[in-house]
Amino acid sequence: MAKAESQINFSLVNPNAAGIDVGSRSHWVSMGLLEGQSKEFGVFTEDLHKLCQWLKVQGITTVAMESTGFYWKHVFVMLQSYGMETYLVNASFTKNIRGRKPSDLSDSQWIWKLHSVGLLPASFQPDHFTEELRTYVRHRKRLIEGASQCVNRMQKCLTLMNIRLPVVLSDITGKSGTAIIQAILSGERDGKKLALLADRRVKADKETIAKALTGFWQECHLFELKQHWQMYEYHRQQLKECDEKIDALLQQRVQQTNQAELVYEPKKKSGARKMPPTSK
User: Fold this and answer.
1) Which of 2-6, 50-54, 249-253 has the lowest mean pLDDT?
2) Quick check: is 172 in a domain?
3) Which residue range is the domain that position 162 belongs to?
4) Considering only CA atoms, which of 219, 197, 215 is closest in space to residue 206?
């Protein structure tokens, strides 16, 4: 005899719930399995307003959606602006179900079903200030990475011309390296004259620096060096503007929270002399 299949019944936790399958071209919204309880909406701002208004008319108070790429962000913010409790859930909590045929419609219905019985935990979402600060900091990180790539490419251009500037300078973008590269880009090719631009604190002697700056000048590599230098300078300017944005945001936060006494300001020791770097 075949064993009778046991069925597990879940109690309804969120009666006014909906589920959204977020997509790049459309969003499917479901608040049940019956006809008329599911609807497809576009991705434009006007469509998102219609989506939220439809849910409000239906009496929906809580909505769950998957964290699909970055397409969920606009929907998430829009739903919150309409006063609905919004759950952003990990896709692994809804996808790994054996025997279920995935589709945009069925996915939204499945999300609704899981959310209505309280089986979907919400992922942490930072507040507006933290989200804004994180955006600036992540962008700043990419700017630093971009500037670092430019430096590596400049070193390659110099090496291809057998200009061994990285051998005698620890940082080709320091005071000495900047002066030498700018002179090269201005047309100077004499290694001895270029060596005179090195700061006196550089460990290598002028003769060694002159030898390192004597190579095979090639127009193609000089052109590439010039463009990488310009990109490096552009990244530096962009980084400066980004730092100013971050400082302004943090200062505004301090004023809003009235916690200026918690801001750390290092004190300068009286009579202390700033030590110069070992190499420029």
Assistant:
1) 2-6
2) yes
3) 129-257
4) 197
